Structure formats: C-alpha cells, structure tokens
Task: structure prediction
Amino acid sequence: MCGIVGYIGPRDATPIILNGLKRLEYRGYDSAGLAVLQDGVIEVRRNAGKLARLVSLVEQSPVSGQVGIGHTRWATHGEPSTRNAHPHVGETGEVVVVHNGIVENFLELRDELSAEGVNFSSETDTEVIVQLLDRYLGAGCNLVEAAGNTLAVLKGAHGIVMFSSREPDKIVAARIGNAGGVVIGKGEGEMFVASDIPAILEHTRQMIFLESGQMAVVMRETVDVQELNGTRVDYEVHTVSWDPVSAEKGEYRHFMEKEIHEQVRSLTDTIAGRVDFDKMSIRLGQLNLTPELAKRVQKMVIIACGTAANAGGVGKVLIERIARLPVEVDIASEFRYRDPIVDEQTVVLAISQSGETADTLAAMAEARQKGAVLWSIVNAIGSQAMRIADGYISMQTGPEIGVASTKAYTAPLVDLYMLAVHLADMREILNDKSRRQLIADLRLIPDLVGRCLDREGQVKDVAYALKDVAHCLYLGRGINMPTAYEGALKLKEISYIHAEGYPAGEMKHGPIALIDEDMPVVVIAPRDPWYEKMLSQVEQAKARGGIVIAVATDGDDRIANIADHVLWVPETPWLLGPVTTIIPLQLLAYHIAALRGLDVDQPRNLAKSVTVE
Ligand code: AGP
Result:
C-alpha cells in the first residue's frame, strides 16, 4: 500500500530518500513526506498529492542530515491531506515514524492518550504509534524498549520505521503481520530501509527481509534483528539479482507499456533454468515436489486476488487437463473466512506478484493451519508468500512497477503450464510422446508473444475506435474464460471504463440483454477446442447490433467476415493460447487509457500491492 524508505550513513539522506520514494510511488501516491535529523532536530517536509509536490517543497525549503525516513501514502484512515501525510512526529518533537498498515485499535488508544492530555494533529491511525513512543521515551525507555512496548499494544498488521533525536545513531524498523514487507539494505558504512527492493536497488543488492514479529536496530555499520520481546535472532543476507535499470522506464512513456513489451524477455526468463530442451524435461527445484507427494495429493486449491486469480483460472484448466488433478480456484479474501475443506492431501497454491497481498497471505495462513501443503508462484524476491511456502516457483520477470499487472500475468501462465507437466511426470501419467510435445510447444512461446507485440499498430487503431465508450463486455470460453476476466480487469483499472468479463456460454442467460450498438463486445475466439461455440457467440452478439472486436487466429476469415474489428494472434498450441490472446487485450487497455490522457501507471484509488484487508 504505502512506500517507505530510510537511510543512515555518512551521506545526505534527503536525495537518497526522495529517489527511493520515486521508485516506490506506484505503491501509494495520494501524499508524501520525509523527516531528516538536521543539527540534532527532526525536520519534516510533507505534502498532499504526488511526490513531485514534495520534491518542489524540499527545493523551496531545503533540509539535510545523515539520518532520515520517507513515505508515500495510500490513505486508509484520514483523507489524503498534508496534515495526514507521513511522517508523524510525537508531541515532544523527539521521535518520528512512518507506517504501512492499519492500527485496528487506534480509536481506544487515541482516547486513552487524549485523556492523558496528548493533542493529536492528524486524523490518522498512525499518529497513536508516535504518541505512544513519545510517552515511553518520556518514561525513561530507550528507543528500542519504547518500540517494543508500543508494538505490544498495537492491533493489526504493520510495517513501521522510526528514529529519535535522542539516539541519532540508529533507525528502528519493525514488521508485524502482513502489511507489506520491510527490507534492510546493507551498504558499505551505511544502511538502507525500505518497504520494497526497487527503492534501494541502486545502492545495494544485499538485502535482509524482516519476518513478521521482528524488529531491526539499524546502525551505520551493523544490523541487529530481534523478536519484539528483545530476543536476538540470526538473519540471512540475500543477494538480489535484479538490476537497478529494470526499475527504470527507459524509452517508454509508462512502466505498463515497458512491461508489456518486456514479455518476450520475461517469458524467456521464466522458462530459463527450468526446461531442458535437450532432455525434454522440466525441473522446478524450489518446489520441493517428490513423486511420493505428487501421488499423495488429492486436490489443489489455487488462492489469489485480481490478476493473479485470473491466472489461476487458466491454471485450473492446465493442471486438470495435463496432470488430471482436481483444481478449485478461490478468491483469497473469500477462502480465508469460509472454513474451507482442505487437509494434508490438499496442495494450496498461492499466486501473487508482490507476495505481500494481505488477503493472499492470510489465506495461506489458513491453509497452513489446516495442514495443507503450501506452494506459491511469486515475483517479488524474498517476499512473505515466497518465504512462508513449503515450495515456490519464482516468476523471474524482474520488478513490475505499473499498477496494472501484465508480465506478472503471462509469466505465471507459463509457470502453471510447467507445473502441470512436472506434476503429471511425477504422477507418472504422461507418456513420453505427449511430454515431449508439451515441452516442445513451450519453446515457441517467446517468439509467438513477440509476433503479437509487433501488431501493436493494429491494436492502436481499435483503441482509437473505442476510446470514448462507457461500457465494454468481454466474452471467453474454456481456457480463455479467464482471459475475458483479465482483459476486462485491465480496461477497468486503467481507463475507468465499466468493463465486464463473462463466460461466453452464460451470455444468453442474461448479459445478452446489454448488447446494443453502444456496447462493444470483445470476444476471445482463437482456434481451440471451444472455437465453434465462440463463433456462434460472435454471430449472436452481431445479431443484436453489438460492436464486435474478436481476438482471432491468423487467417481466420470466418471471424473476419463477421467481426467489426479483429485483433489477430498467431496460431498457438491451445494449452498456451491464453499467453498470446491476452497480449492484444493488454495493449488495447493501455492505448485506450493513454488516449484518454489518464495516469496509466498510477490509476486512481489503486495501488500495486494491497497490504490491508
Ligand atoms: C492487477 O493489475 C492489479 N494490480 C491487482 O488486481 C492485483 O493483481 C492484485 O492486487 C493481486 O496482487 P498480487 O499479485 O501482488 O498478489
């Protein structure tokens, strides 16, 4: 949700924090601020609106120091405004915090503190944290003790970073539950703290990831990690392979545009190291799958949110078809509260780009508690969903910055395909001929996606025709039913057009009533086992006067003769069809939003990682 950056070292913290926040703005962007220890005094600069406003405020009223913290906000409690922006300072002015998450018991804590005479200057839940810290410091605690006492009374999930003018040699960071990650970057004689790797990647690749219930005392030369009760814990320093340039836009106007065009590389990378095209075999080392487990598992439940859930929908068809294992796909926010029927013979597979989505992490905890085997497909290295799983598959797409997920949708489609073949192999239900064919088809994917991207010009023309519509219906069937949901989600979240994905077979049971000359209907109809059925859908929509945009396989004259617009995709093995059919729909949503002059990378009311319920 929110973005956090901190620095302690010999350099001026201000530019380091502002640059880091720039790289995190995709996490939350309705207000921003920073605090720096300047000549022993905590100086705060903060502003409502985009980070750029904070940058100009700091230019007008400069501040510098060797210890500092900063924040970009996605408001939950208290409207987006300067007084509600972080950092928040205690009444004494001697301690300051930035926070990610929600203090669920902030009203009662606020009442208690107000009764003791504390004056609050904001409407935020976060301010109770700093006023509590102030009180404990006033009672003689040092910063680490004050932090421990404060964290002990907070309810909810939190990522918190703080420092005090009383102890200028340290920053204290803490993580409780699933409110987004807290990562510490180890430098030479300096240290960095952030809520996400891209913020500090230009300074170091040596990262320490805080677990839930841990606090870190970060000094220039040392990092001390401890449980909230003060017990020291050992920690691992991970070397992150992402290069800092991958967190840059390069020659593209938007990160989303760049990430759509990165898919040839990201799909090549997600296959790399997992497929041996000589031996025609698949290896998913980090999944820890054994033939014994593969045969013992009776069902799989895929849990995820948003785009990741749509990828799960394709995974269901792949794993049921190839590995003959029954698969349920469950929205994580529903799974976690429904007392689902899972046990030791169930594998629960979580899919998450950020690996920090609160609903998905809570659903994983529910599955763990019920004894299920826990797997995850994750993009963000070192994230919680990767660390708490029994086995995982990393998407290997590099950082995804644009809020609308694209390359982290197609990569898990290929990961799920590889998982299905690997599972079927381990369950000994795949004959050699089929396995070789399935693996050979995988080699085609990067090139086929490249050919889809080469047709961007055609998509732009269709985008131009649709840029002013108010509604749009997406229809798909079988393995491309989730493609309809994903296409609609992409258009919804960045163009603000009311778009709905729907199982095509359901159309005559209701939504066909929506179709008239003002309702564009995007029909995903490549040559696959559901083609004939989809063709009749195209005819039905056309018969009701709908504007039909068809995603079709090259050379398909039957569709070309009926549809108003065709988004062509190259012939693709049908089990991998959703990897190519989504490309023109990603481009369509992108160009419509860009033509409408909207902020494609930071669409309103959204954030890249949803770390609160
Ligand atoms: C997709 O474009 C959205 N950003 C959103 O639906 C996202 O897929 C969802 O919040 C899940 O995020 P995750 O993959 O990081 O868990």
Remarks:
- The chain has a mean pLDDT of 94.
- The chain is about 35% helix and 20% strand.
- Residues 305-308, 352-354, 357, 360, 403-405, 493, 609-610 surround 2-deoxy-2-amino glucitol-6-phosphate (CB under 6 Å).
